[in-house]
Each structure stands twice: as structure tokens, then as C-alpha cells.
Amino acid sequence: MRLARRSFALALAGLPLARLNPSGAQAAPSILLDNVRYFDGRAMTGPARLLMMDGIIRVLGSGVAPDGAQRVDLTGRYVIPALIAAHSHIGHTSGDTSGRQYYTRENVEAQLRRYQAFGIGAAASLGLNAPLFHELRAESRAGRLSGALLLGAGPGLGMPQGAPPAGPMNLADDQVIRPVDPAAMRQGVNDLADKGIDLVKIWIDGLGDTVPQMTPEMARAAVEAAHARGLKVAAHIHDLSQARLAVEAGVDILAHGIRDKEIDDGLLALMRDRGTWYIPTIQIDEAEYIYADDPTITQDPFLRAALSTGMIARLQDPAWRAAQLGRAAPRRSDVRINKLNLKRVHDGGIAVAFGTDSGGTPLRVQGFAEHRELELMVEAGLTPAQTLDIATARSAQLLGLTDRGSVRDGLRADLVVLEADPVANIRNTRRIACVYQAGREVAGAIT
Q1: Which end of the chain, C or N, has fewer beta carbons within 10 A?
Q2: pTM
């Protein structure tokens, strides 16, 4: 039987989310993926036989499939676990604009379906979320919301008048909590924990001394309150000094790469000692100039599938391109240093996870940004296999998703079928043939 191929448009048309055991839901059909070469965390292995039954993976080898299982021959194709985005933003943009008005059920669900169609099985929205987030997160965890699994930090916490800047980012008061002192910071964290979050987000960055930087006392208060509730803390940073402040305060995750200076051995040792995670988000800065560098990029079907007509028009506008290129030099420097530091961090034994900040602005294109980030990580000196492991199993570990992130017996059948081997060339992650979520086909080729 040939593998079914669906268009990206159909993938976003509201296909039902595969469920493991929701009350009254029809179980996913048993599907035998035959002649599979799959990513085992280190390399492509196989050929093998993978059975997806009741939304769970069974690696059969030469074992016998149950009667009635639908056989899909994957000769010449490759399977990886669905990607897990540990740093994104959801519901903040629409087309080529952003603002609080876009945080609606319909927009959040459409963006989760886009992530899913691009092979991303779970996305953590690190801040800027409106109060509706808590309801949608609960529905997603229960399997009642279509698209990728929604996780996140609620609105996140920053300094009064600090980052993220409300005016430039079109933020409303309910999208960022801005405590005035450590006691209020602790209260803010506890309030969010009561409502339901997966981790705590704080903004330490002073945006080049243009806004108040978070003080060590405020950062420590957030960490103390979060850890008391069993939650990790992710810190938005840019500079080496901010990263040091964050690690010394006890944060668990540097939610962006260090981009002003090369990381020093002392901070590397401290991060290693404290088990600090690192999410480089290289694409956050590249997104500011990559489209201006080459306007023909909008003809790429993979990117074009993620863009609105308004956004395509903006990227092709000569005046916009000239303006972006005129201010691109600092961003290019950020990308260069970010790559250098990612390699040092990874080689230094620091745990690295995967994220892009996609959805934070319209230029950080959800779905496309994740695949471009994989390529940037390889450009930084990581191997494709190391990068895929970071974007799947390691990110699942960071987010506490013990039921997914690898192709192993007993884990969720959240899988992406590719037309070519991504270990041979990381760009082959774009060659999506089919996406399965909990053993059910939810998306096909992006055309």
C-alpha cells in the first residue's frame, strides 16, 4: 500500500487530533510501518517494522503484526520523532502583524496545526500568553485541542517598564506580569502555578540598557518560588553578563543564546555544575535579515506554505528590504557569536534544547523557523544526528515529556516520515511525506 499524501492546506483544515484514551474517542487504527529506517538518537537504523497501535510505538523487528493492521511500505523513506519546540510563542501574531487581539482560540489552534504539519509535535509558548492559555493548555493535554501539544509559561514575568517592551510589541497588561518587588515576584509565580503552567519565564534582558534589567534579587525570588512548586525557570537573556546573573540566581534554562561575547570557561563550569540548560534560538536574529538578503526565498514552497499573502508582499517590498539590510549588521554579529557559543556549550557538556522564538514576531515564521534552526545548528558545528537528538529526545527531557521524543517501544507514535535521510543532510527534514500524531496521520507533504 502506498503512503497517503495530503496537501498542507488540508492539514490545516481542522483534522482531528489523535488521542490515546480520551473518553468516548475512537482509537487510532493499528498501522504497520514496514521497511522503516528510523532515527534512534544516534543514527539511522533499520530496516525495521514499527507498529503503531493505540497510539503507541512497538518496534517489531521481524515480529508478526496483529491481524487487521494497515501496512504502509516505507522503503526508501526515513522516520524521525516529531520535533519538540522548547521555545516558541503562540497566539501573538497573525499574518504580518502582532497584538493581543490575536490571542483567540481559533488563532492558537491554527498555529498549533501549522506546527504539527511542519513535523513539530509539541510547542512550549514561553510568555506573552493571554489568560485563555491556561484553558487551552488543559484542553491540549487532555487531547481535546487539535494540532501540536501546547505547553508554556503563561504570560511570563518581567520588570516594570522592562522587557518585553509593551509598546513596540503591542502587548496588553495581561500578557506579562511585572512585579514591583521580590514578594510580588513570588506571588506572581505562585498564581501562575495555581492556574497551570509547565515552566516559569522571566525576562532578565535590559535590551542594551534601554529598559530596566532584572535584578539578581528579583531573579532569585522567581527561582525560589518556582522550585518550591516543582517548576523550572527559563530566562530571556542576550548578553554574557545577563547569562551569568541568571545562572548565579539559579535559573534552569537560558532561553536564548549568549550573543555579545564568547562564553568563558568559568561560566561554562558553573552551568555544568548547576545543570543549566541552553536554548540558542539562532534564527531569532537571522530572521531579521535572511528574507531581505534574498527576496527569491519567498518562492520556496516550504517557506511559502507558512506565510500569509500580506507577509509575502512585505518580504518582497524593496523599501522594506533596504530598511532591514540597513540595520542588519548587529544581527549578523549576534548570529556569528551565537553559533560560536553553541558549539562551545555543546562541546563543554552543557545540556542543549531546541527552540527558535517563532511566533514572537511575524518574521519568526512558525514551522519554517524550526527547520531553519536545525540547519543553523549544523552550521555551528554540530552533526545532523546531534541536532536531531537535541530537537527531539533532549527537548522532551527538558519539558518533562517522558512519553515522547524517541522512536522506542511504549512511547507515543508522534512520528515524521521523510523522503530523504536527515542524518546525511539536515535540510532533508523539510522533505516531509507524512506526519503521525499518536498513531494517526494528521498531515502530509507540504506542497
Answers
A1: N
A2: 0.94
